[in-house]
Write a structure and sequence with these properties.
alpha/beta; Rossmann fold; binds adenosine-5'-triphosphate; binds magnesium ion
């Protein structure tokens, strides 16, 4: 059975899509069959893998509304071992159309159930909102991978995300855990990044991945060529970092996720401490 990892953070622009694409590609490059499901109406992970806008193409929307079974919507990417269920902007409508259905939160889970034994990893790229699309992803997932930038306000909202994950775990998906937190767009030359990293380590312990993803222009360029970084420039620091992250996740094994409540307990007293150094540096 494939492990389903949702890449989620309701904060926009933190590197969810870049992480989803390059992590999925790194799994595939390690010869582990992988499926990337684009759950975001912005469709950035679809276009980033070369699936340009095509109104006739079946997408995550058709999977969620039950108009097409998942196996019919899966597309082969240009990278061997990586398959994609692309999104389309119709997905905005799914949020509204499904709202009165009793099984609205379970649509993706049910659809992926039928295909999950074909893949080792299934990576879900979520939109920047705690909406019905993200809810579907979190109900379908075994674990949540949270990309975060090393800035003082990064933790704002993470507590809310962990609360949401915990609620979903209690009410809808008892298997859900936190895979871990990965720092993205990281610049270790700044004191700020180092200070924040130390604070985050205190909160998240071994849930903070050792691998950090550097700010690297190749990661930003690759999507415009429709390729993951490891196909666009395999020796770039960005591509190498995501390969390391994939290895770290594969090395942890399948049962590595931790209950979100345990993390949030650690987070609460320290949410204040994280702001203190910020105030010190500005005064
Ligand atoms: N490590 C990095 N180095 C340089 N640029 C990056 C890196 N990670 C992401 N970016 C760039 O930052 C922007 C936001 O990244 P991305 O789209 O992955 O974030 P997101 O969380 O998926 O955004 P959204 O919330 O809108 O879905 C993009 O232009 C992307 O190319
Ligand atoms: Mg995105």
């Amino acid at each position: 059975m494939g492990r389903i990892i949702a890449v989620a953070n309701q904060k926009g622009g933190v590197g969810k899509t870049t992480t989803a694409i390059n992590l999925a590609a790194s799994f595939a490059a390690a010869e582990v069959p992988t499926l990337l499901v684009d759950c975001d109406p912005q469709s950035n992970s679809s276009s980033g893998l070369g699936f340009l806008k095509d109104p006739t193409r079946q997408s995550t929307y058709h999977v969620l509304t039950g108009e097409a079974p998942a196996h019919q919507v899966i597309r082969e990417s240009s990278l061997e071992g990586l398959w994609v269920i692309p999104a389309s902007k119709d997905l905005i409508g799914a949020n509204v159309e499904l709202v009165s259905d009793d099984d609205r939160a379970f649509r993706l889970r049910a659809a992926l159930e039928a295909i999950r034994d074909r893949f080792y990893y299934i990576v879900l790229d979520c939109p920047p909102a705690l909406d019905l699309l993200t809810l579907n992803a979190l109900v379908a997932a075994d674990s949540v991978l949270i990309p975060m930038q090393a800035e003082y306000f990064a933790l704002e909202g993470v507590s809310e995300l962990l609360d949401t994950i915990e609620r979903i775990r209690q009410e809808l998906n008892p298997n859900l855990g936190v895979e871990g937190v990965v720092l993205t767009m990281y610049d270790d030359r700044t004191n700020l990044a180092q200070q924040v990293t130390q604070e985050l380590k205190n909160f998240f312990g071994d849930r903070l991945f050792d691998t950090t993803i550097p700010r690297n222009v190749r990661l930003a360029e690759a999507p415009s060529y429709g390729k993951p970084a490891l196909a666009y420039d395999p020796r770039s620091r960005g591509a190498e970092a995501y390969i390391r992250l994939a290895k770290e996740i594969m090395g942890r094994g399948m049962a590595a996720a931790i209950a979100p409540a345990d993390l949030n307990k650690a987070l609460e007293p320290t949410a204040e401490t994280i702001e203190e150094p910020a105030e010190q540096t500005t005064t």
